[in-house]
Every structure is written in structure tokens, then in C-alpha cells.
């Protein structure tokens, strides 16, 4: 069996389903674009600014975390900048060995009309995909469009998603994002009803208290996937790295194969778990839960898909077989057409991990 190492994980094919465009900018790009528009940053030194972003994410203070986005969003208010940032995001994922990704954003946070910002993002994705394909490192990247749950525009946004996806196949799903405690999915029942009736793919963030209630509410309103879902651990017993008992909600999620878009480092940063050693993802994948590994906000948490998998391997002794399962879970639960999912798994993921002499 090939040893698990940072280099081997980086080279192996990976999938990413939960990654925010405004949380994944390059530090150098933030500095350059801020200078162009006259926006003041906490620092113009790349290392110092990275430390500032990560400190905000790791502060266990939601307001401090959210304050970091003020600076990324400030430089994302033109089609030119948004297209560049989307293009760079794909290039960064290609360099990290990602072969399929879904990146999400909220048009309410941008001054451009929703259709214009969607067009700019998809244009950036396509340009980077073409470059990657020409270099022999193909990747497919699609877009999830979010409505902010603390606002009242979800009815408008879900109709934009429905309208745009008919001409733009890269628009693959609707999401509810933003602060969760006090803003359950049921507050956006009409938008979610419209999404269900018009056969839109739905993923809903559920990572904050009241823990199981938010996950249950998301499922009741039609979520095909759960953004994060780490607090499902409250409905199970984990002993010595194994799930030994579970309640009715955890059993429902397991039996129906509901995909949980886990982002382990983010979960430590927001206080959902104290450290990676105690994160439930290892026990859950061993128990057969449909879980995957994600980054959430690459800039703020200073992570990449490969670094997340390496850190989990070190913390929980993940095997190559478990890493492969996490990747297969993500690809098979993606919102790409089923033919594309099968192609990626059968011709890209399985052969690569087989070559690693998996046990």
C-alpha cells in the first residue's frame, strides 16, 4: 500500500461540494484589487493579512468571522473582478488535484444584477476549465446560488436560479446561507416550495444551534444535501472511533443516504467540535454515512481539500480506502448529471485510488 502523505493526497483526485466564492480568494488578489478601488485592508502584507483572516475565522466569535468577508466582498463588486476571482478559484483547485467542484455564492451580496454576476462567474469557470483541459488536468466546476436566510429575497433568488439554469447548465442548485440560529429554513418555506415544485436541486446550510432542529427542518423542506450537518453528532453515540448508537434523525440520514457536506477545520473554528480528533467524520464514514470533506472558506480557514484530508488522516488515521470513499461520496452526491458523476468515478477516481494499492 502506498503511504498516505501530503504529496500523495494532493495528487489524488478529489471532489469539493461546499466552497464559498467570497471565502476563497487569493490573498494577493485581495490586496491588488483593494488597492485599485481604494479599499483599506487590515494589512497589505500577504502573510500578515492571511493571519488576520484566519484569526477571525478561528476566534469562535461569529461577528469577527463575518467581518472578514467585508474585505473580500468589497473587491467583488464588478463583473471583471468576479470573473477573475472565479477563474483563479478553479486554477487553485486544479493545482490541488480537484477534478469536480461546486462553488457557491449569494447574488444579494453583490451590486450587479444576479444574472450578470452569475454570467461572470460561469465565464470564469469555463475559462479556467479550458486552460486546465489543455494542460491535461481536466476539471468540472458548477455553481450553487444562495439566498441569504437573514434577508427576504429568497423568493426572488430561487426564481432567478430557475430561470438562469435553463440556459446556463453550470447553475445546478439553490441554497440558503448566512446566519442560521433564529433563521430556520421554514422562514423561507415559499421559496423552498417553489424549488421543489420546479425540480431544483436543494442544499441547505445546517451547522449552528439548535443542532438537530435545523437539520430536521432542512430535510422537511426538501434538502437533497445538508451544508455541514456536523451537529448530527448530537443524535449519535461515538465510542473509540465508532458509531455505537443513533437516534431517529441520524438513522434517517444514514438510511436515506443524505449527503453531509462536512468542512472539518471550519467546524473547529466555529466551535462545533473542539478539535479534528473529535470530529465525527471518521466514525461516520466507517458507519456508512454519506459524508464528504470540504473547505467552506479556503481563505479564512487557510485550507485546501488536500490539507483537510491530510489533517484528518493525521488526526483520525484515515486510510486510503476511507479517503477514496469520501471522494466517491461527494462525486456521487454532486448535482452534476448522473452520466458525468459515473464517468468521473469510473474513469478518474477509482483507477487513481486503485493505483495507490488500496487495502
Shape: globular
Tell me the CATH topology.
TIM Barrel
- Class from secondary-structure proportions: alpha/beta
Mean pLDDT across every amino acid position: 97
Q: Please trace the helix and strand order, writing H or E for each element.
A: HEHHHHHEHEHEHEHEEEHEHHEHHHH
Sum up the structure in keywords.
TIM Barrel; eight-stranded parallel sheet; two-stranded antiparallel sheet; 17 helices
Q: Could you describe the 3D structure shown?
A:
The protein is an alpha/beta fold. 49% of the residues lie in helices and 16% in strands. An eight-stranded parallel sheet has the order 1-2-3-4-5-6-9-10, with helices on both faces. It has a two-stranded antiparallel ribbon with strand order 7-8. The longest helix has 21 residues. The protein starts with 5 loop residues before the first helix and ends with a helix.
Question: Topology of this protein?
Answer:
Blueprint (H helix, E strand, L loop, with lengths): L5 H6 L2 E7 L6 H11 L8 H12 L4 H6 L1 H6 L4 H17 L2 E8 L8 H21 L5 E9 L5 H12 L5 E7 L11 H9 L4 E5 L5 H9 L4 E4 L7 E4 L2 E5 L1 H8 L3 E4 L1 H6 L11 H6 L4 E3 L4 H4 L3 H12 L3 H13 L5 H18 L4
Parallel strand pairs: 1-2, 2-3, 3-4, 4-5, 5-6, 6-9, 9-10
Antiparallel strand pairs: 7-8
Helix pairs in contact: 6-7, 8-9, 16-17
